[in-house]
Give the backbone structure.
Amino acid sequence: MINAINHFASKYAIYLKKTLNLVKKSTFYIVGRHAVTEALKNPNRQVVRVFLTEDSKKKIHKENQHVNLLKNVSVFYKSKKELDKYCAREDILHQGLVAEIEHLEEISLKSYISENSDRNNINLVALDEVTDPRNIGSIIRSATSFNIDGIIVKERSYPSESKLLYKSASGCTELIKIFQVSNINTTLKYLKSKNFWVSGFDTESKKDFTNHDWMGNNVLLFGSEGYGLSHQIKKNSDFLFRININKNVESLNISNSASVVFHHLNFIKEKS
C-alpha cells in the first residue's frame, strides 16, 4: 500500500513539474515595429524568437544605434510573404517584424498599493467588460502617453495574447502596469478602503468631468463598448461623470473618451 502511494506521488510530482514547465514556457506572437521593438527593449520581457526582413533589421539598427536589440535573441530572416501568415486572421500589418514572446510576470495590485501608500496622486484606470482588443490597445497607448499609473482589467475579459491589442498599443504594453483581477467590483471596494475615489464615465450623467477637482488618488471607470457601465459598477462609484461633446454627435468611441479624460487629468497633475 505504501509503495503504491509513493509510486502515485512520484508520478504526480513528475506531472506537476511538466505542467509548471509548460506554463512557464507558454508563448505567443506579436507583430509590428513598435510592439516588437519595445518588447526587445524591456528587460522584464522574455523574447524567444524574432522573425524579420532584411530591411527591418537595418531599420532596427538605425533607430537603436547605441544598443544591439537583437544580440541575445534567436533571429530568423523571412520574406514579407512568409511573415504575412502571422497576420492571416487579423487585419493588421506586420511591418516586417514578428516576435514570439512570453508573458510578463503578473503584477499584484495590492503590492503596488502597499508600496505606494505614501502617494496621494495615483490615477488608475479600470475597464468593466471592455473586450475589443483594438480598443484596449488604444486605451493602453493613451494611458501611457498621459502618465496614467496603471490599468485594471478583468482576467477573463482581457485578450492578453491578442496581436491586435499589442499592435494598437504600439509598444505601450511594455511601459505601463497592467493589473489583472478576478472581480472588478471587489477590486473597487478594496481601492475605496485605501482612500481611492472611484469615478465612472456614463453618458447619462449630468456632471461634466472637467468641473471636478480630481485631487487625491483616483480610479477612472470605463464600461463596455455596447452597454457602458454595469448597474453594480455604478453603485460602487463615488461619482458619475459625462464628457460634453457636440449635441449632434451621439457618443465617442471608448478609446477616444478615455484619451480626453487622460489628457485632462495629466494637465491638472502637471499644473499642480
Summary: Strands lie at 27-31, 47-52, 74-77, 97-102, 123-128, 150-154, 177-181, 196-201, 217-223, 239-241. The chain is about 40% helix and 20% strand.
